[in-house]
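Hi X.,

You mentioned you wanted examples for the new student's onboarding notes, showing what a folding record looks like when two proteins sit in one file. Here is a clean example. The first protein comes first, with its sequence line followed by its structure tokens.
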Amino acid sequence: MNEVEMNFKIVNKDGLLNYLRTLVTEKTQNIKMTYFGKHGDESFYIRIEEISDKNGDKKVLTAKGSFVTTDGVNQRKEVSIPISESPEKYIEFLTLVGMELRDSKSKVRHFFHIDDLDITIDEWNVAELGNRLEIEGLEEGKVKEFATKVIQYCDPKPSK
């Protein structure tokens, strides 16, 4: 699948959450992510996500290719598969085939589905990442249009 998305650093998280909650019901998840990369290639990575929410726990293995960014809109190839074994087996497999363990981070994700768009607010446990907004969909025009509705709560310059 090709991702079409815009990302922003949030400057008013409470205001943004309150606005989105007036539009649709929010879903919340706790996510731990473990990242792996290829030596000398910072653009490609594989991650293991351990996701917990009110419906239970699940684990996913995701590979993401390099970004192509045009006018603040990011696009890249992404492939995800469910993990049925323990994450440790996947970590062992990835390191055996030459992937490097990079780091592990956690976040609380607030998820909203609005007008065929997935809107997420991530509260990272890493101070330098801060709170991030991602607007993702299939149509670049819809992504950009929604961004104009919420930009007042964010740093107006899109990020990766």
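Then the second protein repeats the pattern, sequence line and then tokens:
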Amino acid sequence: MPHSSHVPSLPGTLKPMLEMQMGTGILAARHTGEEGDCDVFALDTARGPHTVRVCRRSIPNLFFAEVQALAQRREAGEEGVPDVIAFADAPYTGLGAPGQAAPAFLLLKTKNDMDTKSVDFLKYKEDAEA
């Protein structure tokens, strides 16, 4: 069977849920690859970049353990750990058509590199003036 060149798209059943959780509309969604059995999408929004992993297979506690690990990394002071906006582990009834299940997902707020660069620049300027 020939390999399909079809690029996965963000499931329509998931888009309204993501927009509700982010509090803003999705301007663009780009498929950036796969992690495990999940598709990864970069989301452009008015509130900055987000990332969502979408998994159509039902895997118990698929994202729960990862959410816990991210929280521990953040509490330990690790820099650049993305913020968890929302997640759902099993296919659930989404905001789409009645009876249509939405896939499991993990929605992350990507850290903005510009923020850290500007802070580093200000710190450098203060050090240089001292």
